[in-house]
Design a protein that fits this description.
PyrdxlP-dep_Trfase_small; 37% helix; pyridoxal phosphate; binds pyridoxal-5'-phosphate; alpha/beta; seven-stranded mixed beta sheet; 454 residues; Aspartate Aminotransferase, domain 1; Aspartate Aminotransferase, domain 2; 2 domains
């Protein structure tokens, strides 16, 4: 077996193959799980407790020698693959030069360069500025700070099925109680939730979903909050934790227009959907929506913790000097990794790779949906694809079938994640550099899992 121990491993230093040689999880993973049980807080769960030894390209290798096909990318983070060559090269060089000065104390070029890249890559040709942080939740919180400071208003509007993080303010913004909010209140005030255009579950059917949902959302904002009190409307252009919900066409532009007409800052939370994941740099581009502010994290830095708020210069400049920041925000090693990840996305044209992944996955999933009534809906874009599972013949969510399918996939060497407000969505987020053979093999495993569940 080749070892990725040199300073710049190739993107595929690990054999790109599935290999299941023990039960999943194997004995060494189980030993580690026992140690975890004793020393790590129970609140920190694991989707699949195989302990990782190495990961690269489209596979994750565990301490027992199993190699799993990766359809998760650590939740849409390692889009460029784990330990991607340019990420390792640039982050290693930065590690050797200096690890931290705090950008608020003595600045460095990498931070500025990431801000330049964000200005270039995000939608719209207006003047843009950025501020960097460590996590997605922190980026969303700062987008709210900026919008409040700019508008001198307080209310924040979010949507059903939305997910924005686990800090106090972002828990308030998040719609799902279990596991994100339960027993953790009280939550931050001045947060209002309105309907989103969820075509599969819209009561009058998908045809008028965009119009009706937008009308309801706007009516609720106008009547219950007062548009003139709203600082920001925050939406995921393709909702992640809510179940990979694509708002019906026309919904996003209508909400963005309403925000514009009423002096409300329109924030696109592209933390999960951004950076080539959906086959565009940012998912809102598919409908030509130009957000005022955009939050990014996850895929931005190939696995290192980095997040950003990018937006209209006059809005970004509304907060007073010293009002934004944090000790580690825009850490130099994370910035170097981001520049390596962006370099990889450009060089390998990962937007095309994401579109190709959709071309391979969607027809097979639609075929499976015809075969297995448990699949109620197939949706998503690029390499952000999901199936929603229901009780056959109904639209009643089936979290049981979802858990069973995920378990069968895991046991056979395919790492998949579940999601959704009703816990009934199997989501696929492969690294964009995954080989097509592995992609198809993963789908074979999924097919067998569906067959075994019925
Ligand atoms: C993951 C996620 C967040 C939170 O990011 P963290 O880095 O986990 O804090 C916020 N918004 C969306 C859309 C996400 O998917």
């Amino acid at each position: 077996m080749t070892s990725p121990s040199t300073s710049s491993p190739s993107p595929h230093a690990l054999p790109q193959e599935r290999r299941v040689v023990t039960a999943i999880p194997g004995p060494k993973s189980q030993e580690l799980a026992a140690r975890k049980q004793k020393y790590v807080a129970n609140g920190v769960g694991n989707v699949l407790p195989i302990y990782v030894k190495r990961a690269c390209g489209g596979v994750v290798e565990d301490v027992d020698g199993n190699s799993l096909i990766d359809f998760g990318s650590g939740i849409a983070v390692t889009s460029v693959g784990n330990s991607a060559e340019a990420v390792v090269r640039r982050a290693s060089a930065q590690l050797a030069d200096f690890t931290h000065t705090c950008f608020m104390v003595t600045p460095y070029e990498g931070y500025v360069e990431v801000a330049e890249q964000l200005a270039e890559l995000t939608p719209g040709d207006h003047d843009k500025k950025s501020a960097l942080f460590n996590s997605g939740a922190e980026a969303v919180e700062n987008a709210v700070k900026i919008a409040r400071s700019y508008t001198k208003r307080q209310a924040v509007v979010v949507f059903d099925h939305g997910y924005h993080g686990r800090t106090n303010l972002t828990m308030a913004l998040t719609s799902k109680n279990m596991p994100y909010k339960h027993s953790f209140g009280p939550f931050a005030p001045e947060v209002y939730r309105v309907p989103v255009a969820y075509p599969y579950r819209w009561l009058t059917g998908p045809e008028n979903c965009a119009e009706e949902a937008a009308a309801q959302a706007i009516d609720q904002i106008s009547k219950q909050v007062g548009a003139e009190n709203v600082a920001a409307i925050i939406i995921e252009p393709l909702l992640g934790e809510g179940g990979f919900i694509e708002p019906a066409n026309g919904f996003l532009p209508r909400i963005a227009e309403f925000a514009k007409d009423n002096g409300i800052v329109f924030v696109a939370d592209e933390i999960q959907s951004g950076f080539c994941r959906t086959g565009q740099w940012f998912a809102c581009e598919d409908e030509g929506v130009v957000p005022d502010l955009i939050t990014t994290a996850k895929g931005i830095a190939g696995g290192l913790p980095l997040a950003a708020v990018t937006g209209r210069a006059e809005m970004m400049d509304a907060a007073h000097a010293g009002g934004l920041g944090g000790t580690y925000g825009g850490n130099p090693v994370a910035c170097a990794a981001a520049l390596g990840a962006i370099e990889t996305m450009r060089e390998l044209d990962l937007n095309s790779r994401a579109k190709r992944i959709e071309e391979v996955m969607k027809p097979r999933l639609h075929k499976l949906a015809e075969q297995y009534q448990v699949i109620g809906d197939v949706r998503g874009r690029g390499a952000m694809i999901a199936i929603e599972l229901v009780k056959p013949g109904t639209k009643d969510p089936s979290p049981e079938a979802t858990a069973a399918v995920a378990k069968a996939c895991h046991e056979n060497g395919l790492l998949v994640l579940t999601t959704g407000t009703y816990g009934n969505v199997v989501r696929f987020l492969p690294p964009l550099v995954i080989g097509e053979d592995l992609l198809n093999e993963g789908l074979d495993i999924l097919e067998n899992a569906l067959a075994s569940v019925g």
